[in-house]
Amino acid sequence: MIVRQAAHVLELLEYFASRRRPATLSEVAQDLGWPRSSTFNLLGTLAERGYLYEPRAREGYYPTPRLLHLAREISEAEPLPEAVTTLLRDLVEETGETAGIAAASGTEAVFIEVCESPRPIRYFARVGLRMPIHNTSCGRAILSQMGATERASVLRKVPFERFGPATPMSVSEVEAEIRRSVERGWFQNLAEFSQDLCGVSLPLPLGGRQLALVVAGPLNRMQERIPALAARMRRGLDHALAA
Amino acid sequence: MIVRQAAHVLELLEYFASRRRPATLSEVAQDLGWPRSSTFNLLGTLAERGYLYEPRAREGYYPTPRLLHLAREISEAEPLPEAVTTLLRDLVEETGETAGIAAASGTEAVFIEVCESPRPIRYFARVGLRMPIHNTSCGRAILSQMGATERASVLRKVPFERFGPATPMSVSEVEAEIRRSVERGWFQNLAEFSQDLCGVSLPLPLGGRQLALVVAGPLNRMQERIPALAARMRRGLDHALAA
DNA sequence: CCGCCTTGTTCATGGGTGTGGACAAAGAAA
DNA sequence: TTTCTTTGTCCACACCCATGAACAAGGCGG
Fold first, then answer.
1. Which is higher by pLDDT, B235 or B242?
2. Average predicted confidence (pLDDT) for chain A
3. pLDDT of residue B175 exceeding 90
4. Cβ separation of A9 and B9 shorter than 8 Å?
5. pLDDT at position B237 over 80
6. Residues of B with CB below 8 A from A205's CB?
7. Fold of A4-74
8. Cβ of B94: how many Cβ atoms within 10 Å?
9. Which nucleotide's C1' is closest to B59 (Cα)?
10. Once rounded to an integer, what is the mean pLDDT over residues B205-233?
11. Which of B22, B26, B102, B143 is deepest in the core (most CB within 10 A)?
12. Cβ–Cβ gap B2/A70 under 8 Å
């Protein structure tokens, strides 16, 4: 069950992030399609907790830097090493494709860091973007790091659904693909999840965390480069982990 | 009316900020005193939106850096100039007391930047801390920048409540004190809000924003230094605004 | 100044949601 | 293995809160 008002808080914060200036009650209500009275209550709640203020009288609310402080404290506790983020930048520069770091979240994988390709046609990803864990290269790279029972308990909950002809449709197909990938030395995904989308991933164990390094782009640009790409990622990863 | 689940989101994020490591459903439920089922729904909602992930299988959830990205986008849109934050640091160093920047939020003033005194006995403030707008020095420094009608509409909603012998108990008392302060050249508060607490403030108009610079500390350390303090703040402010 | 329109605030109520409890799954102990 | 405890998941229902509607307060144009 999804908690509506919790989602609304996130929606409101995202609204301010894209708007980048204060908003009055009516503006928020209109833009987000909420009743004015509900908006009133929600803004009041966030303001009371010190998360909203009024930069100018009568010009509406805007988030205080309190959120930033909170987020900093949270992120500084489990940071990604500098070497990993520079690796992402290097990979994007050399390959021209989008690179990222993903982790598990229920039956999905979620990006916790992304460096986007500069090309007009590219894999468009952002931190927080989620994708199925069983039919993406980075998802399986994460799964490969779990123990058999843990992986089983995740896969049991997966809602197998067909996205394309190559989509695996059962636990055993996923397990088989993971085995093949381990032998091969890298994880890959050829349009299993989204038409035209191709990903190459490597497991990235980091301070006990089960992460994955992934480079993804359009199938036609990626397909014949996969082995070379995987080799380059492996070198970069070994170098970064050694640091 | 306070929106419970919205407040719970903030509580949860603050929980992670102080805990600084992943938490399982049961731990969250126990530590925050929520029913397990409600906790389940809330965590699920945040996870679905890409704000939570599982660093290690079976070791619980932790916020993704998505929140940090969001907060950065929000704060970069209305930043405080470098000169202001260095002014705060300078003031703390020279005076030994806590310095901060405050803004309006309904009938309260809220800190949007704080630099704390290093002394063991000090005014303890954090970004997001709120205080009544009518009986604090910084609150009145903010009010002084508003037009008469705007100020009136704020003051009409103030719940006048006695915190101490000096607390102003009516709109006209507040207006009178603001007038006195403008003539005097600075705003001050001698234990009106909290026993033993003394604040000195100056209005800080910044890009149209109605802010206030405040230095606060224990009454006995502050009282006879007030004029000197105010003069020092004025100099620093003029210098910072010129930059 | 007076209407008119927009914005902000309050409140009673019924539809949606938080929660207790039942169940399932996974460790822990034996 | 089996049993016991802990943790995670599901669900129906009572209750509470989100909301529509009414009201108050500004703002604006005439």
1. B235
2. 95
3. yes
4. yes
5. yes
6. none
7. Arc Repressor Mutant, subunit A (1.10.10)
8. 13
9. D7
10. 96
11. B102
12. no
* Parts of chain A belonging to CATH 3.30.450.40: 78-242
Q: Where in chain A are all domains bearing CATH 1.10.10.10? A: 4-74
- The CATH number for A78-242, chosen from 3.40.50.980, 2.60.40.10, 2.60.40.2310, 3.30.450.40, is 3.30.450.40
Distance of alpha carbon B208 from alpha carbon A104, whole angstroms:
45
Strands (E), A124-196: 130-132, 187-190
Torsion region of B216: left, alpha or beta (phi above 0 gives left; psi -120 to 50 gives alpha): beta
Q: What b/e sequence results for A43-55 when a residue is b if at least 16 CB atoms lie within 10 Å of its CB, and e otherwise?
A: bbbbbbbbbbbbb
Q: How many CA atoms lie within 13 A of A33 on its CB side?
A: 1
Whether chain A has a CB inside 8 Å of the CB on B57: the answer is yes
What residue has token string 């906790």?
B39
The answer to whether the CB of A83 falls within 8 A of the CB of A240 is yes
- Check whether A243 has a pLDDT greater than 80: no
Structure tokens at B169: 């108990």
Q: What is the mean pLDDT of residues B129-155?
A: 95
pLDDT tier at B243 (50, 70, 90 boundaries)?
Answer: confident
Nearest nucleotide, CA B27 to C1' = D7
The verdict on a CB contact (< 8 Å) between B10 and A47 is no
- Identity of the residue numbered B65: P
Q: In the predicted model, is pLDDT for residue B86 greater than 80?
A: yes
**Over the stretch A144-178, which tens digit does the pLDDT of each residue have?**
999 999 999 999 999 999 988 999 999 999 999 99
Query: CA dist A91 to A75, A149, A179, A215, B114, Å?
Result: 24, 34, 26, 8, 40
- Strand pairing class (B98-105; B209-218): antiparallel
Tokens of B186: 């600075």
